[in-house]
């Protein structure tokens, strides 16, 4: 029977009520962000964003259906929600709509969470 040595790691004290990264967020900005988060608060929509993030060209509505296991109407509903908050671009090609990710929109969303290191 072997004995393992466990090294204790000193924990830094947790600061209470650390200020958020950008305390000057306006009510309008908060409402816009809330609408984006609501649009992303669905597993199917997260998968759509992921599929588009990995696509090399715009994706037809019909291509999402087998990937998500959803009907065309349901896929269109989810795409409409993401389009409404500015995360997607849509282009018509004949009778089909093709979607791509607005990468600058996701980039702006990501910068919201780029917190600067708070000096202690």
Question: In summary, what is this structure?
Answer:
By secondary structure, this protein is α+β, with helices and mostly antiparallel strands. 47% of the residues lie in helices and 12% in strands. Helix 3 (61-68) packs across helix 4 (72-84).
The main β sheet shows up as: 3 strands, antiparallel
Bin the strand percentage. 5-15%
Integer average pLDDT: 80
Distance between the termini: 45 Å
Number of helices in the DSSP assignment: 5
From the 3D coordinates, which CATH architecture of the domain at 29-109 would you assign?
A: Orthogonal Bundle
Poorly predicted regions are: 13-18, 116-120
Number of strand segments: 3
Q: Quickly name the level 1 CATH class of the domain at 29-109.
A: Mainly Alpha
The strand line-up of the biggest sheet is 1-3-2
Name the helicity range.
Answer: 40-55%
Q: Rounded to an integer, what's the Rg over CA atoms?
A: 21 Å
Taken in chain order, the helices and strands follow as HHEHHEEH
Shape: elongated
Under CATH, the homologous superfamily of the domain at 29-109 reads: Winged helix-like DNA-binding domain superfamily/Winged helix DNA-binding domain
Q: What would the CATH topology of the domain at 29-109 be?
A: Arc Repressor Mutant, subunit A
Question: How would you classify the helix and strand content by structural class?
Answer: alpha+beta
């Amino acid at each position: 029977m072997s004995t393992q040595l466990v090294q204790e790691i000193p924990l830094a004290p947790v600061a209470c009520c650390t200020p958020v990264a950008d305390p000057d967020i306006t009510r309008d900005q908060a409402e816009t962000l809330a609408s984006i988060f609501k649009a992303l608060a669905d597993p199917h929509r997260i998968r759509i964003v992921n599929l588009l993030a990995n696509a090399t060209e715009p994706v037809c509505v019909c291509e999402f259906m087998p990937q998500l296991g959803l009907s065309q109407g349901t896929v269109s509903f989810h795409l409409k929600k993401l389009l409404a908050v500015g995360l997607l671009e849509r282009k018509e090609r004949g009778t089909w709509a093709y979607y791509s990710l607005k990468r600058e929109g996701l980039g702006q969303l990501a910068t919201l969470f780029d917190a600067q290191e708070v000096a202690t």
